[in-house]
User: What shape does this take?
Amino acid sequence: ATLHQALIKDKNCDNLYILAASQTKDKDALTEEGVQKVIDDLAKDFDYIVCDSPAGIERGAFLALYFADDAIVVTNP
Assistant: This one.
């Protein structure tokens, strides 16, 4: 599927789409180049991109923060 075919349109909000990520055992499956390409392609059509990342300081979280203009960090005691 293309990137835009993979986007899921919200039924209640006309301007909200979700791009679901699959789970993988290989924590190194994501690359900086791959994540940057997805973000760059999405930025052509969207003003805001919110990227949720996995808990902990692993590759997924690192890549989400690496490309972020702003970050909201949720913590728990």
Q: What stands out?
A: The longest strand covers residues 8-9. The beta strands are 8-9, 17-18.
